[in-house]
Amino acid sequence: MTQDEINSVFKKPGEKRYSLFIREVVKSEVVYGLSDEEGWALLGDDNDDADIIPLFPGAEYAEAFRIAAEFEEYNVEALDVNELMEWLDEMEEDKLLVAVFPNTEFNGVVVEPSHLKADLQKEFDKEVE
After folding, report:
1. Which domains are assigned to the chain?
2. Residue among 40, 37, 34, 29 at smallest CA distance from 83
């Protein structure tokens, strides 16, 4: 994927990127985030100081975000979608939020883990039908 193609996707509204995220993650069964030796990258929320984990449908998007965010100490890490589904329950308990496919300007849909899990499950159920 070229940088122009990545930029084109990042320019789409957050809701469109959210839908793309759901479809791509269900198809590939892999999600990408940023991590270092201490754990996953977290973004802050100006409103209520919530911790927000950014997740991406492809390594190239996570890498573009990592560079734009100047997160030099982080690496792109893949996570199996089944592990993510289990992890979303823990994230809910820890009151974390998920930034689904944020762009390089930190704009994206922020949802509760249970919401993301339900949308992923709904898409998986469609695949089975």
Report:
1. 3-109 (3.40.1350)
2. 29
Q: How much of the chain is helix, strand and coil, in % rounded to 5?
A: 50, 20, 30
Three-state SS string over 5-19 comes to: HHHHHHCCCHHHHHH
Both tokens of 2, joined, read 């070229």
pLDDT tens-digit profile of 33-77?
Answer: 999 999 999 987 656 678 999 999 999 999 999 999 999 999 999
What pTM, to 2 d.p., does this model score? Answer: 0.92
With a cut of 90, say whether residue 3 has pLDDT above it: no
Contact by Cβ (8 Å): 24, 58: yes
